[in-house]
Amino acid sequence: MTMIGYAAALEQFHPTELLRFSQLAEEHGFGGVMAADHFQPWVPAQGHNAFVWAWMASLGERTKTMTFGPGVTCPSFRYHPAVVAQAAATLGAMYPGRFWLGLGSGEALNEHVVGGVWPEAHIRLKMMQEAIEIIKKLLSGQVARHDDGTYFTMDRVKMWTLPEQAVPIIVATAGPVTAKWTGQHCDGIITPGASLEKLKMLLDKFDEGARAAGKDPATMPKLLQLHMSWAETQEEAMQSALVEWPNGGMPFPKQDIRSPEDFAEIAKLVRPENFKNRMLISPDWDEHRAYIQQFVDLGFSEIHVHNVGRNQEQFIKEFSRHVIERLETRG
Predict the structure, then answer these.
(1) E strand intervals along 104-234
(2) What is the per-residue pLDDT across 108-119, written as a single tens digit (0 to 9) for each?
(3) Would you name the residues annotated as active-site residues?
(4) Within 10 A of 175 (CB to CB), how many other CB atoms are there?
(5) How far apart are CA 171 and CA 189, in angstroms?
(6) What are phi and psi of 172, to 5 degrees?
(7) Which of 191, 202, 195 is nearest to 225 (CA)?
(8) Under a CB-based contact definition with an 8 Å cutoff, are residues 53 and 89 in contact?
């Protein structure tokens, strides 16, 4: 059955406020939280950058059954992969069966704060793959070392506090090569909203990789993150998109842009028509429900939604009533 989750935008809201929104989401039928791991907001208007790992620990205490994980953490720059493994093991031990580890290859906006050379995309992918190798070694509980890698080293060490249930490693990808690798080497996939054709291709590649490793892709987590803008009028919904989430109207890769101020300058070029086929902006709940239904039908096991406006409480309550309760989810 497809679970509808709440995307917690830590780059947009105060962490205490987001805890309250997440609790409200659980009360209204949302089954999980995908929490943004940002060191900076996309644009200054968003205004926040709370530390996701501290926040998720509090989320686990404040909610009862919601699953949750970072969407996504890069284990290659701000964090050494051993530190990510330790953080994941701790949350997995504290909240058995509820925590998952979302990983990605990183964006300069968040990762270049530590300085140094910012590699090309194919190098960042290789770094992530090597980092995941280290994380898997440590989460196995065995004594491990990593002294033959290209990008990382780790002395002989083991993880002492381990979760009772294995923490799923779920990798963010938007391309076919990474999707296939993810299916073969990891536990699940995360991808952002895109055309049905592209998403089907990514899921097919993920399934191909999983089957090559002797796994059943039908049992593996497939997560989708959707940004949308809902308000009581079209004008309000569009204004929220333009002010709060102009990055949704930027049809190009954003991984190399380093500062919120640079994003804000680019945002001056974003027009309402730039959001077409990239983000649903509408006051019509039937339109939102039909939009999400097509991704349910495509086979995603979790769909995490982010309304980009400041009207979070109203959105959570209304979305629950008009969308979650009326979706035809897969059994």
Answers:
(1) 144-146, 154-157, 169-172, 188-192, 222-229
(2) 999 999 989 999
(3) 38, 107
(4) 15
(5) 5
(6) -80, 130
(7) 191
(8) no
